[in-house]
Amino acid sequence: MADTSSYHLAAQHLLVPGHGVAGIPHLDAFLPEVPQIERRRWPSANTDAVAGWGHKPTARRARAIAARKGLPYIALEDGFLRSIGLGEAGVPPLSMVVDDIGIYYDARSPSRIETLLEDGRWKTPELLARAEKAMQNIAEYGLSKTNAAPRLDHHALQAAKKRRVLVVDQTHGDESITGGLADTERFAKMLEVARRDEPDAEIIVRRHPAVAAGLKKGCIPEEALSGVTLLDSEARATDILAQVDAVYCVTSLMGFEALMLGKPVRCFGMPFYAGWGATRDEVRCKRRTAKRSIQEIFAAAYILYSRYVDPISGAPTTLEATIERLHDWRRVADSNTGHFAAIGFTPWKRAAVRNMLAGPRSSVRFHRSVRSAEKDARACDMGKILIWSGKEDAEKRAQLGRSSVPVWRMEDGFLRSRGLGSDFHLPASVVIDDRGMYFDRHSSSRLEMILESLSIPPELTERAARLRAELVAAGVSKYNVGGAANIDAPDGKRVIVVVGQVEDDRSIERGTADINTNLGLLKAVRADYPDAHIVYKPHPDVETGNRAGKIPVAECSAIADKIVDGANIDACIAACDSLATMTSLAGFEALMRGKTVLTYGGPFYAGWGLTEDRLTFDRRSRKLTLDALVAGTLIVYPRYIHPPTRLPCTPEEIAAWLSVDAPAPGHKRLRWLRALWASISGARPVRY
């Protein structure tokens, strides 16, 4: 479902002459009603409209072509919920406004949003209720146009002792200032009025961080700033607004964000939200005669005027979906904040690691030794060591244990790829753990903490149930390789699938006790269930010869009733009554499919009352439902990257991607070509 704009362009052949605008990802989805977008320098014989970037200087050529040819000019601009990072950094927009009359920040002439607000016939109770809910979510999530800024440092402002008034400065040359019927001098006047009308208040001047750094010039003169509290650091607008009682602005979007939080706003210019009775205005616009509520202004601006595109599917989407996307993305960006000194990552994995850790305030540097990584982490703000858990041998573990630098560990996630890691298929998900690692039964992990203590609301449990149903219906597993399983079970016999593993894997080293080999597991299951029909399923990495753990056929056949080579694990689970494992993820996949799971080691899903366990788990005292386990394991704990776009995404989107186009078995030469390509491509992390 996508939002339907209150207006449609009549253009059939829209010329977009600027390289920057023409190169915006998913431009066609932002303009679905236009059959032909002409990405060229000059109009064709069929061109019937011209588009450019708002009323900015970069649009002069597009506007000149439109004027010379007598064609309509269509102004495109970033929407009010744009992205995490900045457009100046090359981050593509999730929202856009399309204006066939003017542009929202230029009150010198009418615009489509002004026409909408003046008319008002679009109002319905349902639309306004939708606007109110969206405003609540934006406020709760602390979202803005861009969302790279950190939380407000508690040292930035002292505890309030009296009324606080925020005065919002803007950067010199901001097009919205002149477009908003103001000028640079208006800012000094605004500060003067704030001092005069609020003599007992603390006046806080919010300057753009680039102004404080000397990279840009502000509009409030330096000599006018004596006696005020300067707030120059990067911080979320909602955090700043929560600390003040009133807001003075010229045309900044922060004024409307203040209105959404219930703050009184005094405008010294004419932004799109002024002139409708929701603000106290020092400037008048005779065209604006209607009285509009904040909900009505929001509905017009964010729902009817703005358009949204889903960055994963590339299709038009809704305001609500964009709000949730930005909320999810900022959680990822926040968790990625800081510098990562990474060790244990082979060259072919590094591009994927950069994307998993991408963010506007993150950086990654790869090292060969703990000593080098520790030195790097100490030298950087919020530095930490990140190690690929499979490379953490006893020596490295001892070195890391002696370090005072925070240590995080990374490992493949549970919905990994369309092929084996040992065949150099990059992961679509990873887990990053700042406490331990989920497969290490000897110490606590972030996943164990989530499952033991997280309050899981009903909506998250319901989401987990839907995700589980999708995964089971699509037959999705960790690697998604293999074919049908021929079990050949006699009637009436209990069928137990015994899942083999890579024997030198870290999950075997850290997650098992007395039974720690595939042969040992097979013998233990036969001893415990002498009358069962036992089917042995080797690990696909072992089958291909890439990893250790092969049982000689004669030994295996003497214990197991059947060996299934090349079978898909989902097919094996479907054909069995029970699944036996040391620590394999297949046990979790079997639980999701309603099978009995017998654990002979300490996997993350054991000890919660859902499995039959040989070992005991003293730290795991909670009894979980299956969907609570799924919620913590597949939704809360991992991180996901959509391989085609390299963007952060949801487990549902990865499930959809994994459910189609599984790769055919590749030649060994293709395997190494895949590794080479992964090593040399994607050096720059994705920007969002």
From TrEMBL:
One of its GO terms (biological process) is polysaccharide transport. Transmembrane segments: none annotated. CDD domains: beta_Kdo_transferase_KpsC_1, beta_Kdo_transferase_KpsC_2. It comes from the Bacteria. This is Capsular polysaccharide export protein. It comes from Parasphingopyxis lamellibrachiae.
